[in-house]
Please model this.
Amino acid sequence: KLSEVIVVQFVRHWLSTPSNLQNGWFNAVIDSKIGPALHAIHCAPSLRWDVEKLASLANMSRSAFSARFTNLMGKSVKVYLTEWRIHLAYCKLSTEKVPVSELAELYCYDSEAAFSRAFKRIVGVSPSHVR
Model:
Protein backbone atom coordinates (compact mmCIF):
# COMPACT_ATOMS: atom_id res chain seq x y z
CA LYS A 1 0.00 0.00 0.00
CA LEU A 2 2.88 2.38 0.74
CA SER A 3 4.12 2.15 -2.84
CA GLU A 4 0.64 3.00 -4.13
CA VAL A 5 0.49 6.09 -1.89
CA ILE A 6 3.93 7.19 -3.10
CA VAL A 7 2.90 6.84 -6.74
CA VAL A 8 -0.33 8.78 -6.16
CA GLN A 9 1.57 11.54 -4.37
CA PHE A 10 4.13 11.69 -7.19
CA VAL A 11 1.41 11.98 -9.83
CA ARG A 12 -0.41 14.68 -7.84
CA HIS A 13 2.82 16.64 -7.45
CA TRP A 14 3.67 16.22 -11.13
CA LEU A 15 0.21 17.39 -12.21
CA SER A 16 0.34 20.38 -9.87
CA THR A 17 3.45 21.72 -11.61
CA PRO A 18 2.23 23.96 -14.47
CA SER A 19 5.23 23.32 -16.71
CA ASN A 20 4.45 19.59 -16.73
CA LEU A 21 0.98 20.20 -18.12
CA GLN A 22 1.97 22.43 -21.01
CA ASN A 23 3.30 19.64 -23.21
CA GLY A 24 3.89 15.96 -22.99
CA TRP A 25 2.19 12.64 -23.15
CA PHE A 26 -0.63 13.52 -20.73
CA ASN A 27 -1.76 16.51 -22.77
CA ALA A 28 -1.43 14.57 -25.99
CA VAL A 29 -3.64 11.77 -24.66
CA ILE A 30 -6.42 14.15 -23.64
CA ASP A 31 -6.10 16.25 -26.80
CA SER A 32 -9.21 15.86 -28.95
CA LYS A 33 -7.14 15.41 -32.12
CA ILE A 34 -3.95 13.66 -31.03
CA GLY A 35 -5.56 11.46 -28.37
CA PRO A 36 -7.41 9.20 -30.84
CA ALA A 37 -4.23 8.77 -32.88
CA LEU A 38 -2.23 7.78 -29.80
CA HIS A 39 -4.99 5.38 -28.84
CA ALA A 40 -4.80 3.78 -32.29
CA ILE A 41 -1.01 3.48 -32.11
CA HIS A 42 -1.17 1.86 -28.69
CA CYS A 43 -4.06 -0.48 -29.51
CA ALA A 44 -2.71 -1.65 -32.86
CA PRO A 45 1.06 -1.12 -33.02
CA SER A 46 1.43 -3.80 -35.69
CA LEU A 47 -0.60 -1.90 -38.28
CA ARG A 48 1.35 0.02 -40.92
CA TRP A 49 0.63 3.46 -39.52
CA ASP A 50 1.81 6.54 -41.35
CA VAL A 51 1.20 10.22 -40.81
CA GLU A 52 -1.58 10.32 -43.39
CA LYS A 53 -3.60 7.53 -41.73
CA LEU A 54 -3.16 8.99 -38.26
CA ALA A 55 -3.99 12.49 -39.47
CA SER A 56 -7.21 11.17 -41.00
CA LEU A 57 -8.16 9.69 -37.61
CA ALA A 58 -7.70 13.17 -36.18
CA ASN A 59 -9.58 14.82 -39.07
CA MET A 60 -6.56 16.98 -39.76
CA SER A 61 -4.17 17.60 -42.61
CA ARG A 62 -0.87 15.76 -42.48
CA SER A 63 1.15 18.90 -41.83
CA ALA A 64 -1.15 20.24 -39.12
CA PHE A 65 -1.29 16.83 -37.44
CA SER A 66 2.49 16.44 -37.53
CA ALA A 67 3.04 19.90 -36.09
CA ARG A 68 0.49 19.41 -33.31
CA PHE A 69 1.81 15.95 -32.45
CA THR A 70 5.42 17.16 -32.31
CA ASN A 71 4.42 20.19 -30.25
CA LEU A 72 2.59 18.08 -27.67
CA MET A 73 4.89 15.06 -27.59
CA GLY A 74 8.25 16.70 -28.16
CA LYS A 75 9.02 14.22 -30.96
CA SER A 76 7.68 13.37 -34.37
CA VAL A 77 5.02 10.76 -35.03
CA LYS A 78 7.56 8.51 -36.73
CA VAL A 79 10.00 8.68 -33.83
CA TYR A 80 7.25 8.03 -31.28
CA LEU A 81 5.85 5.09 -33.22
CA THR A 82 9.31 3.58 -33.68
CA GLU A 83 10.15 3.97 -29.98
CA TRP A 84 6.81 2.45 -28.95
CA ARG A 85 7.24 -0.56 -31.21
CA ILE A 86 10.81 -1.12 -30.05
CA HIS A 87 9.66 -0.87 -26.43
CA LEU A 88 7.04 -3.55 -27.07
CA ALA A 89 9.61 -5.72 -28.83
CA TYR A 90 12.00 -5.29 -25.91
CA CYS A 91 9.29 -6.44 -23.49
CA LYS A 92 8.54 -9.49 -25.63
CA LEU A 93 12.21 -10.37 -26.02
CA SER A 94 12.86 -10.15 -22.31
CA THR A 95 9.86 -12.27 -21.30
CA GLU A 96 9.22 -14.68 -24.20
CA LYS A 97 11.23 -16.83 -26.59
CA VAL A 98 10.20 -15.09 -29.77
CA PRO A 99 12.34 -15.02 -32.93
CA VAL A 100 13.68 -11.62 -33.96
CA SER A 101 12.34 -12.21 -37.46
CA GLU A 102 8.84 -12.59 -36.01
CA LEU A 103 9.15 -9.30 -34.12
CA ALA A 104 10.43 -7.57 -37.24
CA GLU A 105 7.37 -8.71 -39.16
CA LEU A 106 4.98 -7.97 -36.28
CA TYR A 107 6.20 -4.38 -35.96
CA CYS A 108 6.22 -3.58 -39.68
CA TYR A 109 9.89 -3.83 -40.54
CA ASP A 110 10.77 -4.99 -44.03
CA SER A 111 13.68 -7.08 -42.79
CA GLU A 112 15.19 -8.52 -39.64
CA ALA A 113 18.31 -6.43 -40.28
CA ALA A 114 16.34 -3.17 -40.39
CA PHE A 115 14.56 -4.10 -37.17
CA SER A 116 17.85 -5.02 -35.47
CA ARG A 117 19.44 -1.70 -36.49
CA ALA A 118 16.48 0.29 -35.15
CA PHE A 119 16.44 -1.78 -31.96
CA LYS A 120 20.14 -1.25 -31.32
CA ARG A 121 19.86 2.48 -32.08
CA ILE A 122 17.08 2.92 -29.51
CA VAL A 123 17.93 0.35 -26.83
CA GLY A 124 21.70 0.43 -27.15
CA VAL A 125 22.12 -3.34 -27.54
CA SER A 126 21.10 -5.86 -30.15
CA PRO A 127 17.90 -7.86 -29.83
CA SER A 128 19.89 -11.08 -29.34
CA HIS A 129 21.70 -9.49 -26.40
CA VAL A 130 18.37 -8.78 -24.65
CA ARG A 131 17.23 -12.34 -25.10
